Amino acid sequence: MVASRIEAQLAASRPHGALLPYFTSGFPDVAATAEFVRRADRLGVAAVEIGIPYSDSIADGSVIQSSFHAALAGGHRLQHTFDMVTQLRSTISCAIIAMLSYSMVHRLGLRRFMEEASRVGFDGVILPDVPVEESAPTSKAAQDAGLSYIGLVAPTTSPARLRATVAGSSGFVYQIATAGTTGERTSLADTLKSETAALRELTTLPICAGFGVSTADHVREVCGFADGAIVGSALVRRIQEGTNAGLGASALADSVQRTLEDLISGTQPSRDRSE
Amino acid sequence: MPALSSRWEPDANGRFGITEDSDGFGGRFVPETLMAAVTQLEAVYATARQDRAFWTELHDLLKHYVGRPSPLYHAKRLSERTGGAQIYLKREDLNHTGAHKINNTMGQILLTRRMGKQRIIAETGAGQHGVATATAAAVCGMACVVYMGAEDIRRQKLNVFRMELLGTRVVSVESGQKTLKDAINEAMRDWMSTSEHTHYVIGSVMGPHPFPQMVRDFQSVVGKEARAQSLAMAGKLPDCVIACVGGGSNAAGIFAPFLDDESVKLVGVEAAGEKLVEGRHAATLSAGAPGIIHGMRTYVLQDHDGQTLPVHSVSAGLDYPGVGPEHAYWKEAGRVEYVHADDDAALAAFTLLCETEGIIPALESAHAIASAVERAKTMAPEHMVIVNLSGRGDKDVVEVGRLLKRYVGDS
Predict the structure, then answer these.
(1) What is the per-residue pLDDT across A215-236, written as a single tens digit (0 to 9) for each?
(2) Does A94 lie at the interface with B, CB-CB under 8 angstroms?
(3) B66 CB contacts (<8 Å, ≥6 apart)?
(4) CA B194, CA A180: separation in Å to the nearest integer?
(5) 10 Å Cβ neighbour count for B263?
(6) Of residues B36, B195, B293, nearest to A56 (C-beta)
(7) A98-108 pLDDT per residue, tens
(8) Regions in chain B scoring below 50 on pLDDT
(9) Do A133 and B181 count as a contact with CB atoms less than 8 A apart?
(10) Which residues of chain B does A179 touch, with a Cβ-Cβ cutoff of 8 Å?
């Protein structure tokens, strides 16, 4: 099987660890989101996660929730995200991953959603409200459409569930770093390293950690034992602050780029992966 | 102990009505972080469900603390005024705290204790489930936090104070539409980081498995009593049982023990709000489509992208954009007929019951009364209709006074 773009990108980042930034699609508008993605790609990130706004996202903390509500209030529709990715795909080299509620996928129709997402240029999909018991059809539909299906494991996940989740996953496995919603934390759980090690025993897939990963120091810590660090709320908050301060499009993108540069400084050029 | 024929029970993944052609309804669509708590609850409840001692303890609480059994009352003047079938009222309004909600919270508080947890959280819309949860927490000495939409807090100040008197902390939810669905989101988010020591007392037959089945079991005491009372009082089963449906717990409770009685027509009444106009009603089964919300596959009111639509009803307890998955199954199986009554019909039924029977019903229950009166008119006087009078209307009198322009309060 040909390695997916996600796996190839993560493999290329392997010597230093990868940063995977998350942006809410349509916040503050799709043109801005597209520019954030282009800037991230130019800085050499392995993949970007595009969060597709949903009205009732249980897994998200206040920052991402309010970005969702702002995007929806601004008239954002799923089709706008698809159009944006269509335009981005040919101009960037990083992988693009959709993260959204299964409510939206179900509404469009599982197969239709996956085929459409693949066609516009998504490389993978993350459905944070589909636990492994419900994931057989979603995993199959994604992989049939040529998308990586990224399963999530949490600090509360039992060993049996870890195995089942890994078996249905491709691209990478999403290690939820904090028992709770998305959102910035001052420090990461002490147990994250050992949880990642336990997961490593069960899979050869890359492991990326997110939820609570907020600073360059966190990225450095995570890249010490995982393959990638996912940062969402810290970036979305920066966008929120910039928007509230009335920054114009290029000033806002510059501000996001500075945050990305800072976060990327947390990846480890000289880390030793043989440990 | 609950005993239904197997076709009415969910499969191991909590799906009701799964067949070759149907994905069924229910399931568990929640973040992985919650699955440990959900599977723990499933295991603890599966054990308790087969444990006579558990049901004995619950029955004891329901009898001596809640005041069960609630009466089945022949509403003769209402029946006469209607001119048709005999209307009987299952008086859940006479329970401690004034609604059926406490049947469920007493059951869940006992399970919380079995799990060794010391803190409970809940969502509430109108405040009835919040008060019932706060009451259960107080009588069992547990810490309790209730999430309530900021908009509902404004409309239901008295219930907020009631919960606070009972020692509960009420948290105002400022996200989304600031009503019931947002309070559920916020309670689930709390549970994601606290499930080790906290149980989430969901207030209706909704959410991820095992909640729909479990809450239906706890509420089934209503239907079991009504069935026995009907046989004792009238010497027969009723021809029809009618209940209002928001999330659907009072309806599931009174319907479940009648499911295998094929002669008994079951009717669920949803809130049509302002004449079923999109965004201004809450008739999920009548106007919605299968979707995913709050951890379950069920009927949902949503737009083409799957975004939840705004809902409205004169009764704060019915304005929910989803519905318990078992109701979705009963609808598709054709076992229950789902109809709707709008705000005006509910208000008219509210005053009708006050004037004919001296009973002030909850606005939720008034929807069931409105539909029962319409249906009874088409039936013969020897026929019998039972309406679940799921709650009392003290909480609604100010709002009704305002809507009917007959009473203006202090504010």
Answers:
(1) 999 999 999 999 999 999 999 9
(2) no
(3) B95, B96, B102, B103, B106
(4) 8
(5) 10
(6) B293
(7) 999 999 999 99
(8) none
(9) no
(10) 33, 192-193, 195
